Amino acid sequence: MRLLPPIFKAKSAVSTITSLVDAPFKTTRYPTLTAAPLAKAQTEALANELNTLYQSVMDSLGSDDARYIQRVYGTVVYSEVISRALLAFAGQLSSKRSKLSVWLLGTSLLSFSKILNNMELGHNVMHGQYDWMQHPHLNSQKFDWDIVCPAPLWQHSHNYLHHTFTNIVGRDHDVGYHLIRVTDEQPWTPSDRYNLFKTMILALGFEWAVAFHDIQISVDEYADTPQLTDIMQPKARALFGKIARQMGKDYIAFPALAGLTLGRSSAMTTLSGNITANIARNLWTWAVIFCGHFTEQAHIYTQLDANESKGDWYVRQILGSSNIQGNKWFHILTGNLSHQIEHHIFPDMPARHYAKIAPTVQAICAKYDLAYNTGHFSKQFMQVLGRIRHFSKPSSDEWHTYTQSISNNNSSTNENNNLGVNSATETLRGFRRFLPQVVRQAMFYA
To answer: Quick one: where's region Disordered (predicted)?
Structure first.
């Protein structure tokens, strides 16, 4: 993982866009912005229209919204109970065909439950979309979801950093998750040649990347703070505590319960179903998140405007996000993050309203000549893979810069050796040498 700043600076391979007049950014692949694309007067007018739209929806919230999220919560609970019963029951069937059929049904239902828990329930509740209900459990301060990442860690890296500094390189750590190069503003390194392979690993274990993401960010964010250890210790302990609870529930408690009551075969069908459901949830979550942020037209910003207004912030959210077209159930299973544009401009609005306001938001974007990036899942997904593949290769200038830096490093190393400087580093021993640096950091602070 890319934890430390590279030893050379990136040289942009894509022409930098500074205004709508200078370049038609709607058609530029992988666009980069160095400044706000609209004049302040336009962004203020845009903000007024979007603020009015937001307030009209928030004023309409009531019993229908409360019943909706409670039904979602009930669906998550009941689907999990039924799916786990099916997985245990599958181990009792003698026919291989029947066992496989029931196992597939149970695993599919458990995957559905975990996806719904993660996306439409957990993500949206922890954004504070239903805090107005003052529900004892369905609020951003008390709800915790069914993944290995503790809610407070995710809320810091996602609710605060990502939604505040969206798509600003160096400020929004979700740009590539410190692992995948997705813009020419990220310096190329040899490991980027394996972008597609690293993406596959990230997708399969996405909940783990999300879990350690805030640890990685916080170590750098608070590096110069005297209270670094006091800040990191509770974060690391909360993380490992949540990991223990999640792994204990899915991979020990439920398989053991099935095994003790129904036998070894039920324990194995339960364990395998839990593993498969978690992987299915990870793959789906990763695909939705990446399709919402890293299509061809997702704009990257090089810096934060010191005088950024609410209207400028709205523009950055719109240009940095991508929607996915689909039917009602598709939107529910994405947590309505298929309306990523609407989510980024109104993160605390109950997500079920995004589909209703999307045509109005699109019309406002057209009025101010802002790209409203939307497309079917297949189109957006192929664009994401294309982007990841594109940035796995260096431009000729980037390759020259890299080879030059290697040459300079070799010369410096030889000089140090000639002067008798000991450049040896501490060798990690035991299983720790196989762990990513961010995991070792979390273990150190825990």
So the answer is: 402-421
Q: What angle do CA 243, 246, 249 make, to 5 degrees?
A: 140
Can you give the residue range of the structural domain that contains 363? 25-390
Calculate mean pLDDT across residues 56-84: 97
Tell me the two tokens of residue 68: 């909706």
444 contacts 229 by C-beta, under 8 angstroms: no
How many domains does the chain contain in total?
A: 1
Assess if residue 60 is contained within a domain.
yes
Q: Which position has the token pair 């309203």? A: 353
Tell me whether residue 3 is in a domain.
Answer: no
* pLDDT at residue 5 in the model: 36
27, burial (CB in 10 Å: exposed 0-12, middle 13-18, buried 19+): exposed
pLDDT at res. 432: 67
User: pTM for this one?
Assistant: 0.87
Distance of CA 377 to the CA centre of its chain: 17
Looking at every residue in the chain, the average pLDDT score rounds to 88
What are the backbone dihedrals phi and psi of residue 172, each rounded to the nearest 5 degrees, phi first?
Answer: -95, 105
Q: What φ, ψ does residue 68 adopt, rounded to 5°?
A: -60, -50
Helix (H, G, I), strand (E, B) or coil at 170: coil
Q: Is residue 186 part of a domain?
A: yes
By residue count, the chain amounts to 446
Indicate the burial class of 21 (C-beta count within 10 angstroms; 0-12, 13-18, 19 or more).
exposed
C-alpha span between 293 and 288 (Å, rounded): 9
Each residue's pLDDT tens digit, 377-432: 999 999 999 999 999 998 888 887 778 877 666 665 555 555 554 444 445 566 66
Alpha helices (H) along 294-327: 310-319
Q: Would 437 be classed as within a structural domain?
A: no
First to last CA, the chain: 20
Q: Which two tokens mark 34?
A: 């160095």
3-state DSSP assignment of residue 287: helix
- Six-digit token string for 162: 């990502």
By the 8 A CB rule, do 158 and 146 touch?
no
What's the token pair of residue 405?
Answer: 């830096």
Distance between CA atoms of 253 and 243, rounded to whole angstroms?
14
Helix and strand numbers, DSSP H then E, in the chain = 18, 4
Closest CA to 323 of 346, 352, 349, 297: 297
What pLDDT is recorded for position 28? 77
CA-to-CA dists, residue 439 to 1, 178, 211, 443, angstroms: 11, 14, 10, 6
